[in-house]
Fold this sequence. Notes:
With 236 residues, the chain is α+β, with helices and mostly antiparallel strands. It has helices at 13-29, 33-36, 77-82, 88-97, 118-139, 153-158, 198-209, and strands spanning 2-8, 48-55, 61-69, 101-109, 143-149, 162-163, 172-173, 182-187, 212-219, 222-229. The longest helix has 22 residues, at 118-139.
Amino acid sequence: xxxxxxxxxxxxxxxxxxxxxxxxxxxxxxxxxxxxxxxxxxxxxxxxxxxxxxxxxxxxxxxxxxxxxxxxxxxxxxxxxxxxxxxxxxxxxxxxxxxxxxxxxxxxxxxxxxxxxxxxxxxxxxxxxxxxxxxxxxxxxxxxxxxxxxxxxxxxxxxxxxxxxxxxxxxxxxxxxxxxxxxxxxxxxxxxxxxxxxxxxxxxxxxxxxxxxxxxxxxxxxxxxxxxxxxxxxxx
Length: 236
């Protein structure tokens, strides 16, 4: 059985380490680990929330993502990695931060679950659901940034993200190197989800209302039973 579980990073450092190891191993397999870097200070940041995919029988971490809240001491990860290419990214994020902003980042999944939709569709859905209730409600966050690959952008757009065209080249940057293209997107209102398509919005709202549930999800490779454990016990 697959479980998608949410928690505050500082509350479960052991799970953070499993998430880090799995992500690092995946990046190494593509020769990107040294380019992306190895700064894992986020795990000690009270404003970081992690959502991981686990095999309930083996305990193995199969994927995950993070939501990192911006404050005066913690810029968004995309600010740090893109500001030398276009400093206006910082100004853009600062404008959104006036009403509270965060970044949906570090998304990955193992090859073991590739093609099931877990590392893209269902993690994005779970992340927006959690951000739109717990994080927005308790931590005054209105918007959510994401640095998307070309193939993940359409998934993010279905969940309400729009391209930030005023930065980079119409929102795009050569990152993590010239062989790749990353696109800055933002979900401007994670409560109302005004730009989300209807069926995705309905699925996100259902997870907001019922953060603890079991569902049969349909991905590219067929049906998968998923246990959602999205209640963040630090403030719910």
